Backbone:
């Protein structure tokens, strides 16, 4: 993480966040925790409809992921936003919010939670940092979700004539007049390629896929379980845990997946569609730089499997973008 965050840190604590069945986006999970903190802090703020209204929630709880950072960090400006209205210093509000976060203790093996560090800067900014351990839990959870459809807006943006796929000249809504149909093909190609690579890895014994057929694009890795996201010879639950996926192209792809899922949760369909081609390019860079077969498969099976896990997460996200957001086919092969 950038040293500037540490230098300006005023206070910090740990936070456990239960992985929601309704949201795969980290941003929405954090906003829910902030809503609880605002409500329990006694601040004179109306929270009506915030839990279900993404636009209002973003106005009161502006939250975004920092780019060009080591690790995953989200930054919140709620205290800065509320300071003038409540006539209090932003740092005082930020600290009040921090101590008002719920004390979640999830000890059940059936309940997944993310461990984050929360830091308040002297300026009033609140930073949330995911540990590599938390990121591994999130990736595993995302890979195991049967569908992302229920977490989005369920609004179909692009529909082919008479319900056909992109090849039939889709009708584009007016607010997407700059939509490039090539993006749809790029995503379809990416989905088919991910499926092909997962099947190849299954055939070569690197992973085991749940029984599948060519009628459904849902491919799920059931072995190894969980995916070895973290480096070996480390103790679970400590800050020393490190993700295997440290290459810049791997980190970039993970960041884009985070952003896409945040925008699905916000029902920000225009921004979501614009990321389609970016996601395709990021995957190409990842697959070009990060080998799975050859020496990696032979000498570092755990790394190969972690990269296949990232590939499976990408496939699941692209399937949702195609079927649930664009309303077009997610082909298993081209």
Residues:
């Amino acid at each position: 993480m950038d040293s500037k965050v540490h230098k300006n840190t005023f206070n910090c604590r740990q936070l456990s966040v239960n992985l929601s069945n309704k949201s795969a986006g980290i941003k929405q999970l954090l906003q829910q925790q902030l809503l609880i903190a605002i409500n329990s802090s006694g601040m004179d703020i109306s929270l009506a409809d915030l839990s279900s209204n993404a636009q209002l929630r973003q106005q009161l709880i502006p939250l975004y992921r920092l780019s060009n950072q080591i690790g995953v960090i989200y930054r919140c400006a709620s205290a800065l936003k509320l300071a003038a209205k409540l006539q209090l210093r932003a740092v005082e509000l930020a600290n009040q919010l921090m101590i008002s976060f719920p004390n979640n203790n999830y000890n059940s093996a059936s309940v997944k939670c993310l461990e984050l560090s929360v830091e308040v800067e002297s300026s009033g900014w609140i930073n949330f940092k995911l540990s590599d351990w938390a990121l591994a839990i999130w990736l595993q959870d995302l890979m195991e979700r049967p569908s992302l459809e229920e977490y989005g807006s369920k609004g179909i943006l692009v529909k082919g004539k008479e319900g056909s796929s992109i090849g039939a000249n889709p009708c584009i809504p007016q607010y997407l007049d700059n939509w490039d149909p090539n993006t749809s093909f790029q995503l379809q190609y990416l989905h088919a390629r991910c499926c092909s690579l997962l099947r190849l890895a299954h055939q070569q014994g690197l992973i085991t896929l749940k029984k599948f057929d060519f009628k459904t694009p849902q491919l799920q890795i059931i072995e190894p379980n969980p995916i070895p996201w973290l480096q070996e010879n480390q103790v679970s639950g400590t800050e020393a845990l490190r993700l295997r996926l440290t290459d810049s192209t791997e980190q970039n792809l993970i960041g884009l997946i985070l952003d896409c899922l945040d925008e699905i949760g916000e029902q920000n369909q225009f921004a979501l569609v614009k990321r389609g081609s970016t996601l395709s390019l990021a995957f190409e860079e990842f697959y070009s730089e990060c080998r799975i077969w050859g020496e990696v498969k032979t000498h570092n099976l755990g790394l190969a499997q972690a990269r296949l896990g990232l590939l499976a997460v990408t496939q699941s996200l692209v399937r949702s973008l195609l079927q649930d957001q664009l309303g077009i086919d997610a082909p298993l092969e081209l």
